[in-house]
Each structure stands twice: as C-alpha cells, then as structure tokens.
C-alpha cells in the first residue's frame, strides 16, 4: 500500500527521543520521592505525546454518559467507561438514536502508566465515533506500575463483556454482536492483544475488528532510543530487566496471533522513533499468514498515535469500521444505485 503524506503540523508535534531522555535525567536528578513521581509523569507524557492534530473537537455533539462502572464484569475496582451516542443519528443517514448500533471501544495510550478516558483528545474521539454512527465507548484501565500486566488487559476484556451484556445493550443502544476496538500507542497494544485473545474457540466475547495507531506489538524488543519508555514498559511488565521477563511474550500481540482473529487496520508512521515501523510490518505479515484479514496503512510521518489523524485517516478508519460492523443488508443499501429490499 503506498504511503501517504501527513501535514507538516503533525511532524512538528513529536518530541525527539534523545531530548526526552535528557529531560528525564534532568527532572529526576536531586528530587524527593513526591517530586520524582511528578517528574516521572512529566517525562512519560513527553515520551509518548497523544495530542491529536486532526480537529476532532469540531465533531458534532454527542449524548455522553460518564463513569459507567464495569467492575461487575471483572474489571478492577473503580474502573469505568464513558459512553457516547449520536445526538441526531450521526453519519448514518439520520437513523433513530434509539436503534441499536455497533460499538467501538476506544482505549487511550500513555505508556500503560498514565492517561484517562476523559482526556480532551480521547473525549473528542469518543464524540467522533458517535458522529460517525457508532456507539463510542471510551475505556479506562488500571495503570502501571501500581497495576502491572495483566491488569489493563483484564479491564479491557471486562469492558468487552460489559458491552456485549444484554442489559448494557438495552440501556445504551449497543448491538452486542457488532463490537470493534480502537487504540493508540499502549492502547493499541491492549486492543490488539485482547482482540486476538477474544477469538479463541472457547470464548464468546469475540470482537469483529481492531484498529491500532502506533502500537508496540512486540514487547520483547526494548526501546533503546527512549529510556523513559523502556522503563515504563518494564514497569508495566513487572520486570526488573529484560534478561528474565516472561511477561514480555505474554503481553505481546505478535505472539498471540492465531487463525480466526478479528480483522485489523494497522496504522503507523514510517519515521516514528518511539515505536519504530518495524513493529507494525512483521505483525501485519504474521496476521496475513494466519489467514486474518489485515490492512496496513504506513504514513510518511514521525507523528505518534492519534497525532497521525487527519481528515483522510479519520475517514479511512470510519469506513473500515462501517464495513466490518454493519449488517450486509445495510452495506448493500450504501452502494450506488442499490434499492431497498422488498419486505
């Protein structure tokens, strides 16, 4: 697939990895415990920025239900989701807001150590999904280092179970048989891993499609270019070093691939330094070899995660999700010249 250029504003949004490493060293030197924690948060934020360039805030308003608890479905205490529904039928031709719609669970990044579903970037992504005709579900999860792997993956699995529950579907207008996952950076790792695992033959919580943006897909490979992200990865895995870290394989989507997995759209910047494109291409190849439908979109950019979003990519993602989630009859009606089938 030919690479596609991104506006220059996106490239300017990324902080060089070497500068981030220097920032971390400078911030942590001579700090007390509380100051070190604050410095660590700042360094992680600089290491993996998730500010969107695409003006998602321009999307139409959505009906938002905040802080819906999902602990009863296996998530950690206090873990919740936000639900965004189209306020006026969204982009699907003015359909009633009361009808059941496919749900897209959106999972934030932040090196598994920070971030929140209510962050302005991810709130507007939730609204954008609603304006595109889906029920957007923005998911929180427990964060490292206090909650290492598999806590975050377990929370996302619980969110899927919540979305597919009959009472949830009735309350929030979700079609429980049409579920997709979308994640950026660490969130991309989580949606890929949980999406692949959900396809196991003994599971009923399978999802239909997964979209990843700048996802770290093989955690057995360290991040030599960014010591802050490397340490965050080890904290998430619960490992002191890479010499003995079995969780690195367990938490890697690259090693969870098996036939029968959901369709994937894998998006990555060709010039990214934090998570090199070499993470995306072997993953897409392995998916294809396993018989899983995959589309690989390599964008000429150094931008990271949702920083890759522009008009073209946003529409590409929405189209991919519609094709995978809408019933065949609905898709047929979208074809030029198609007529509504007789009752």
Outline the structure in words.
The protein is of the alpha/beta class. The protein has a 9-stranded mixed beta sheet with strand order 1-9-8-7-6-4-5-3-2, sandwiched between helices. The N and C termini lie far apart (41 Å).
Spatially, the strands of the biggest sheet line up as 1-9-8-7-6-4-5-3-2
| Corresponding CATH architecture | 3-Layer(aba) Sandwich
How much of the sequence is in beta strands?
15-25%
Q: Can you tell me the number of structural domains? A: 1
CATH class call: Alpha Beta
How far apart the termini lie comes to 41 Å
Rounded to the nearest angstrom, the radius of gyration is 19 Å
CATH topology: Rossmann fold
Sum up the overall morphology in one term. globular
Give the strand tally. 9
Mean pLDDT metric:
82
Main sheet characteristics: 9 strands, mixed
Instruction: Estimate the helix proportion, in percent.
Output: 25-40%
Quaternary: single chain
Order of helices and strands: EHHHEEEHEHHEHEHHEHEHH
Give a short synopsis of this structure:
The protein has 343 residues and is an alpha/beta fold. It has helices at residues 8-12, 17-28, 33-47, 120-131, 151-164, 166-172, 186-197, 227-237, 247-250, 280-289, 311-325, 328-334; strands spanning 4-5, 62-69, 80-86, 101-107, 135-139, 174-184, 209-213, 263-269, 294-300. The protein is globular.
């Amino acid at each position: 697939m030919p690479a596609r250029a991104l506006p220059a504003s996106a490239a300017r949004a990324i902080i060089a990895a070497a500068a981030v490493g220097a920032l971390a060293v400078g911030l942590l030197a001579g700090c007390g415990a509380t100051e070190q924690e604050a410095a660590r948060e700042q360094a992680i934020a600089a290491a993996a920025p998730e500010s969107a360039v695409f003006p998602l805030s321009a999307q139409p308003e959505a009906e938002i239900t905040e802080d819906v608890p999902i602990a009863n479905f296996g998530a950690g205490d206090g873990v919740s989701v936000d639900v965004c529904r189209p306020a006026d039928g969204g982009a699907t031709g003015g359909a009633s807001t009361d009808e059941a719609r496919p749900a897209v669970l959106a999972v934030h990044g932040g090196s598994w150590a920070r971030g929140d579903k209510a962050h302005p970037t991810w709130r507007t992504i939730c609204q954008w999904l609603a304006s595109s005709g889906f029920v957007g579900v923005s998911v929180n999860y427990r964060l490292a280092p206090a909650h290492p792997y598999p806590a975050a993956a377990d929370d996302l699995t619980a969110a899927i179970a919540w979305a597919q529950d009959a009472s949830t579907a009735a309350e929030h207008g979700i079609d429980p048989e049409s579920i997709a996952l979308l994640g950026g950076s660490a969130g991309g790792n989580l949606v890929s891993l949980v999406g692949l695992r959900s396809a196991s033959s003994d599971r009923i919580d399978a999802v239909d499609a997964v979209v990843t943006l700048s996802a770290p897909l093989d955690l057995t490979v360290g991040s030599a270019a960014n010591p802050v992200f490397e340490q965050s990865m080890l904290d998430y895995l619960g490992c002191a070093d890479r010499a003995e870290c079995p969780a690195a394989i367990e938490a890697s989507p690259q090693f969870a691939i098996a036939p029968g997995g959901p369709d994937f759209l894998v998006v990555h910047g060709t010039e990214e330094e934090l998570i090199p494109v070499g993470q995306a291409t072997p993953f897409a190849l392995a998916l294809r070899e396993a018989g899983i439908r995959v589309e690989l979109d390599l964008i000429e950019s150094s931008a990271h995660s949702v920083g890759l979003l522009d008009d073209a990519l946003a529409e590409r993602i929405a189209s991919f999700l519609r094709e995978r989630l809408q019933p065949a009859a609905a898709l047929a009606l979208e074809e030029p010249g198609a007529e509504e089938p007789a009752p």
